[in-house]
Structure formats: C-alpha cells, structure tokens
Amino acid sequence: MFRKRILNFGLIVALLVSVPVAIVYANDMNFAGNSEYRDKHMTPEQKRKREIGQRREKLRTMQEKVKSEVFYLRSNMWFEKEKNFVSTNFHRGTIIPAGTEVRVEKFGGDKIKFTVVSENRAYTYTRAAKHSKIDLYELFDRYFSNDNPLKGDFKKLSSQEKENIENGKIEVGMSKEAVLMAYGYPPTHKTPSIDLDLWTYWEGRAKSFTVHFRNDKVSEINGYTFE
Fold first, then answer.
1. Are 40 and 91 members of one domain?
2. How far apart are the C-alpha atoms of 24 and 85, rounded to whole Å?
3. 227 in a structural domain
4. Range 89-109 average pLDDT
5. Which of 86, 106, 174, 204 lies at a CB distance of 3.0 to 4.6 Å from 178, suitable for a disulfide?
6. The pLDDT value given to residue 181
7. 83 and 34 within one domain
8. Do 149 and 122 share a structural domain?
C-alpha cells in the first residue's frame, strides 16, 4: 500500500511538472508557426523591429535584382530639365519612349537612378510622396520591365494606337493599355486605381486634364488638346 502511494505521488508530481512545460511548448509552437497568433501576442516594439527587418530584406533583394538584370521602359516618360522624372508624371519636355533599354544603377529611398543604354546617359526617377500613394517598389513595377513591351503588348494594339504611343498622344477610342504606354500612369492621389473610368493627368504643375473611359476605351478627354 505504501509503495502504491509513492507511485501515485510520483505520477502527480510528474503531471504537475509536465503540464506547464507542455503549455509553454504549445505556446512557443503557436508563436513560431501561427502568424495570426504571433501577431496578436507581439509587443509594439517586436512588431516595429519585424517590419524594419522585412523592409531591409525587401530592399536588399531589390537592390540585387536591379543590378543583375536588363530592363525596358513600359511606357513613355517625360522630363523637363536636368534629366529628372517625378511620379506625378508631368507631360512637358523631352520623351524617352516606351521600350527603351535601361540599366538600373540605384534603387532606394524615394529614387530610382538609371542609365539609357543607347546613349549612356543617367536619369533619376523620384517618387513624389504627396502625389504617390504607392511605394517605390510598385512604381518600379509600373515603369520598368524585364520584357520589352514593343515585342509583346505593343504588337496587339491597333495601328492608330501604335502611332499615338510613338507620338506621346491620347485620343478617343484608345484602350487603357495603349493610354498607359503612351502617357504612363496617372498619379495615385487623384486616380487610386486604373480600374476606375476617370483618370486625372497633369500637363504641368498647374494644369490637369481628365481621360474618361467606357468599356475600357477612351470615350472623352477634357482639358487638353494634345497638340
């Protein structure tokens, strides 16, 4: 009887020790493997450090990517002076055409520095935070591609759309894809999504104009004659 009591007591002690350990282990496993559980139980400081780490890793990966690959401009790009572009996408000055081969020299902060291969000239694309509600990574994907668009999407367009793209012009009847190649993306502070049927562009810093779509085709243009 005494021996049996000792055995029972030993089992109770073992349970008292193992249950908390099992609970801690289960919590650790939840924290490590369950992102929803982890997010719920992280302190603000832990979340901040995680976000910083994620941003650094994303930037490091992007910097490696741009230095090792060839890129082409997805759309026409305008610059007025000093070989600088801004994400507000003003339409004055000199055009670098869609399909131009470029070498990206630097990516980070709010700037993308690139060189046009054919002329070996350097340019800077700057994200204007006031007018761009998307980050530099998404802006990069909008304007730079590993594939030359002139050998892909451009071939699917009508002859008139192709001519308008080459001339940096928009007119009624063009598809959204053709407008993007001809004029680039409208700044997101006024046009948060290209799924909308009203896009607002800027000719210059004080003059905007609107492009209306119906069934993904330009139906009306207000405020600009595209002379």
1. no
2. 55
3. no
4. 90
5. 174
6. 96
7. no
8. yes
The mean per-residue pLDDT over the stretch 186-203 comes to 93
Element (H, E) at 124: strand 121-126
The mean pLDDT value for 71-90 works out to: 86
With cut-offs at 50, 70 and 90, classify the pLDDT of residue 207.
confident
The region, left, alpha or beta by phi > 0 then psi within -120 to 50, assigned to residue 209 is beta
Partnered with residue 145 across adjacent β-strands are 72
Bridge partners (DSSP) of residue 209 are: 201
One domain, residues 32 and 93? no
Name the strand (E) or helix (H) holding 221: strand 217-222
Would you call 94 helix, strand, or coil by DSSP?
strand
Identify whether 200 is part of a domain.
Answer: yes
Q: Are 172 and 219 in contact (CB under 8 A)?
A: yes
Query: The tokens of 12 are what?
Result: 């109770």
Mind spelling out the 3-state secondary structure of 3-52?
A: HHHHHHHHHHHHHHHHHHHHHHHHHHHHHHHCHHHHHHHCCHHHHHHHHH
Residues 83 and 52 in one domain: no
Domain carrying residue 204: 71-222
pTM of the model: 0.72
